[in-house]
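User: I'm preparing a small set of examples for a lab meeting where we compare how different chains pack in three dimensions. I only have the primary sequence for this one, and I'd like the structure in token form so I can line it up with the others. Please keep the answer compact; I'll paste it straight into my notes.
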Amino acid sequence: MRFQLVFARLAREKLSFVSFFFLLVLLLVAIFAPSIAPYDPEEQDLNNIMMPPNSSHWLGTDELGRDILSRLLMGSRAAIEAGFVAILIPLFIGVPLGIISGYIGGIVDDVFMRIVDGILAFPAILLALGITGALGASLVNAMIAIGIVFTPQFARLARGQTLQVRREPYVEAAKISGAGPWWIMLKHIIPNISSPIIVQASFSFSFAILVEASLSFLGLGAQAPQISWGGMLHQAYSMIFVSPWMMISPGIAILLSVLAGNFFGDGLRVAIDPKIKRT
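Assistant: Understood. Below is the structure token output for the 279-residue chain.
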């Protein structure tokens, strides 16, 4: 019933609802990209290099005669993978640490928050660049770096929500009844702080797509023959005035994905808690 109510509220937010379906389509495209791509994304046709959009190649071809539409569809996989990994790592690491810190308090909370504050002092992009540079340039390492960057944000959010929930009467009643700390955190804390964490995950998903594209553009993300939208931008950068269509397609894909994630997150935040006004 709770899910149905949230979905009904989200449906009233037209822009957010459209963004939800855009992200759903993007997920399906990433899953079935090899089947729906009109050409082999790695197939080179040196007789048709840098062709503008036409009936055979709807988005044109690149400097090696590869079909841009096929590469764009395959590149969605890197974006989706980065988005999911970026929220799975903090969900399984940052959120539990934040809950433990907020519930136990004391010296554990002080030490933990100083570490979190120190990490958050670095801009997300720069921190991701440093971690990826240390681990090595690859899509997997880029996804790990993005997940590590987001972990303190989720930990801090979980800790703040836990500080509020642990003072609730039902938590005090559970303590009096003899329930242990782990049972209280699992049974009472996590279910009651899940809503803001879900919203944070939706925002982080879209930002992860942008960070992954940035790392790939700089050569620290997906490496050939892996395809990513950021890598496509990097390859087309030097030819922007000769073949602008090579940059337009991946650029628009990144823009729409990030906007859809933000609009969906904003609508989901309002749907979960209608008392919050849309920003």
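A couple of notes for your slides: The two ends are 27 Å apart (CA to CA). The longest helix spans residues 68-104.

User: Perfect, thanks.
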